[in-house]
Design goal:
It is a single chain. The chain is α/β, with parallel strands linked by helices. The chain has one domain: Alpha-Beta Complex (Nucleoside Triphosphate Pyrophosphohydrolase). It has three helices and eight strands. A five-stranded mixed β-sheet has the order 4-1-6-5-8, sandwiched between helices. Strands 3-2-7 form a three-stranded antiparallel β-sheet, with no helix packed on it. The chain is elongated. About 30% of the residues are buried. The mean pLDDT is about 95. This is NUDIX hydrolase. One of its GO terms (molecular function) is hydrolase activity.
Length: about 150
């Protein structure tokens, strides 16, 4: 019995005490504008994204999240921007975020009103730098510098 309890605790630790893997998307429209979504939970602007589901690869999850949150179609991967893993980057839990920039088509809208209050395209000079959620300021700065980071 003691062995079973120890094994169960070890298994639960392996399953529950690990960072969650997610993706963030920097959606770039044909005119060069960037689409952001306004989060319902904190009212701040954010990159579309979310948790990678079991059986998904990163680009499939990014494409799904972008469609679910902003109603946009992914045309193709532009580049990997970075992997962001600081424990405090997401105030809800420890998550590792793989951020990609993609070319997109469509008119942004709040496709999931349970999570998103608004979706809007911003010219690079008009991005709401002071109203970004999580660590998305760093993601966008790295994107505009043309860097690929491991942070």
């Amino acid at each position: 019995m003691a062995y079973f309890v120890h094994a169960l605790r070890t298994l639960m630790g392996l399953l529950l005490r690990r960072p969650i893997l997610g993706t963030c998307v920097i959606p770039v429209l044909a005119d060069g504008s960037i689409v952001l979504v306004r989060r319902r939970d904190n009212g701040l602007w954010s990159l579309p994204g979310g948790i990678i589901d079991w059986g998904e690869d990163v680009i499939t999850a990014a494409t799904r999240e972008l469609k679910e949150e902003a109603g946009l179609e992914t045309l193709g991967l532009e580049r990997l921007v970075g992997v962001y893993s600081q424990p405090g980057r997401d105030p809800r839990f420890h998550s590792v975020c793989i951020t990609v920039a993609v070319r997109v088509a469509g008119k942004p809208y709040a496709a999931d009103p349970r999570e998103v209050l608004a979706a809007q395209a911003f010219a690079p000079a008009a991005l709401p730098w002071d109203s970004l959620s999580h660590d998305h300021l760093q993601h966008l700065q790295d994107f505009f510098k043309g860097e690929t980071v491991l942070a």
